[in-house]
Write a structure and sequence with these properties.
Length: about 525
């Protein structure tokens, strides 16, 4: 599994490999703009910790696991820990793990792996120097300029998939891009999975809570890929993005989800919810110790269940507003935490997930600068999965359709920045420079005329008009223009092909499971 790698994904910084180029032969994905290419980070990662500081954090994290442990609320999980030598106190449900156990388990976790999409050209490569963008996830509300802020529904869920896929923004679809509260809770995940399969051919994520939700995801993914649930382990297709109930507790529903997915060889992205001053110490170093301990404990569990199961160390450490307790994102503290988390993950040899997040209540300048700080930290830390990269607002309380378009500009801009720069004789352009007299211009140069159509990045949202033209066009801000773009993208979106037999089997499975969940006595 870890050997199934894309060319260039482990190329050192400065060697772009397949980097920013659109892959030839990619079949139609329904995107209105070219789909996001596989991105290889050509920059050196930014390390903010010294090697000694990294080791001190790891020593403290391993000490915490050995002396104080984790509260593990699943009897099945506690038994797995016990079988592998952990000290388990059934009365307190505390599991204590020696450093030797944790390090032995981490050694079996792959440093890179591939999750397979229905469209093979869009397989998700995790690890090395590959950068992947995913959408907003877990928001209870959806909002736009026309309809305002409201609870999420299944049509809003599907709209987000249409817009993000239509803009060709992402490397995976996400999971709960907004909570569809109009669908009954027992079958809500089924309708979300149906939307993912019908509207895109990218990798998608199972809901991160509940063993039932994980088992249904496995069954539906097997149908989508024309294989069995058992065979998915050899060719993984799914991820689950889930949390620790920080500080140092993991509940039974989350553990059931994790254990089901890991046991079937699917990717577990485990993210401690370590907000400094609330669920973690107020200091960055202390929060990193707790985050590392919590993540390592769950990665170790996954490896106990299935050695080699793909795992990702998640980082979500940020600060809170000490006046109100509200989470803050895109702050200097968040930037430092993201950079440090990736550095620690590199030392441990596991891929890392972070986020492009903000705390603004509106898709405004604040939302943009906070997201920009978060995104810079995610990319320059060499994080592999960048969650919430399109549409996240209000610290995760809302999915904003205008913000998806604003973020599209940020993500496509970064994709262009990450492209390798060509330095052949033609690019050095010595003959072109000689061909223009001193004081002349290059507008009519043959060198320019041969390249002008594709010479530079073309934005989808920015307005480069002069003031008078902008004024005469209605003085519309970027947020105003984003409203038009997402509407046009949504309305024009054509999903990629789906085999009618697959569609029929998906519908039949969901119909049966819906009856089992909603009709008494049918299970």
């Amino acid at each position: 599994m870890s050997g199934d790698r894309a060319a260039g994904e482990n190329a050192p910084p400065g060697h772009g490999g397949r980097g920013g180029r659109r892959e030839r032969g990619t079949r139609n994905t329904g995107a209105a703009t070219p789909p996001m290419p596989r991105l290889v980070n050509r920059f050196n990662p930014v390390d903010i910790l010294s090697p000694e500081q990294v080791e001190r954090i790891l020593d403290a994290a391993f000490t915490l696991l050995e002396t104080d442990g984790m509260k593990i609320l699943s009897p099945r999980a506690r038994e797995a820990y016990r079988r592998h030598g952990a000290m388990v106190d059934e009365e307190s449900r505390i599991v204590r793990l020696g450093r030797d156990i944790v390090e032995a388990m981490l050694a079996t976790a792959p440093s890179s792996f591939v999750l397979h999409a229905r469209n093979p050209a869009r397989d998700l490569h995790v690890g090395g120097h590959v950068v992947n963008f995913g959408p907003v996830n877990g928001a209870p509300n959806i909002r736009d300029l026309d309809r305002g802020r409201r609870y999420g529904d299944i049509e809003g869920f599907r709209d987000i998939l249409r817009i993000t896929n239509g803009l060709g923004l992402l490397h995976w679809q996400g999971g709960v891009v907004v909570e569809p509260v109009d669908v009954p809770v027992p079958v809500r995940h089924l309708e979300m999975y149906r939307a993912h399969i019908e509207l895109s051919d990218l990798v998608w994520a199972a809901r991160g809570v509940g063993g039932v939700q994980a088992r249904d995801a496995l069954a539906l993914s097997a149908i989508e890929h024309g294989t069995s649930v058992e065979a998915l382990a050899e060719r993984p297709t799914l991820m689950t993005v889930t949390n620790v109930n920080s500080p140092r507790v993991v509940d039974e529903e989350i553990l059931d989800n994790i254990m089901t997915m890991a046991g079937h060889g699917q990717c577990v992205v485990i993210t401690p919810f370590t907000l400094m001053g609330a669920m973690a110490p107020v200091t960055l170093a202390g929060a990193l110790v707790q985050q590392t301990a919590e993540a390592c404990a769950i990665i170790a569990l996954c490896q106990m269940l299935r050695p080699g199961a793909p795992c990702v160390m998640g980082g979500f450490t940020s600060n809170v507003d000490m006046k109100t307790g509200s989470p803050a994102f895109g702050t200097p503290e968040y930037v430092n935490a993201a950079l440090a988390t990736a550095q620690i993950a590199r030392r441990l040899g596991v891929p890392v997930r972070t986020s492009a997040v903000n705390a603004s209540p509106a898709p405004d300048a604040q939302a943009t600068w906070e997201t920009s700080f978060s995104l810079w930290a995610a990319i320059m830390s060499h994080s592999h999965l960048i969650n919430h990269a399109a549409g996240w607002l209000e610290g995760g309380l809302s999915a904003s359709l205008e913000k998806i378009v604003i973020d599209a500009e940020l993500l496509r801009g970064w994709a262009e920045i990450l492209k390798p720069i060509e330095f052949g004789d033609d690019e050095l352009a010595l003959d072109a420079i000689r061909g223009v007299a001193p004081g002349g211009h290059f507008f009519g140069s043959p060198h320019t005329l041969a390249r002008y159509e594709n010479a530079f990045y073309r934005p989808i949202l920015s307005d480069w008009s002069n003031y008078e033209n902008w004024r005469d066009a209605g003085e519309r801000t970027a947020t105003d223009r984003a409203l038009d773009i997402w509407k046009k993208t949504r309305d024009a979106y054509v999903p990629p092909p789906l085999d009618p037999a697959v569609r029929e089997a998906v519908d039949a499975y969901i119909a049966r499971r819906t009856e089992e969940e909603l009709v008494p006595g049918t299970r």
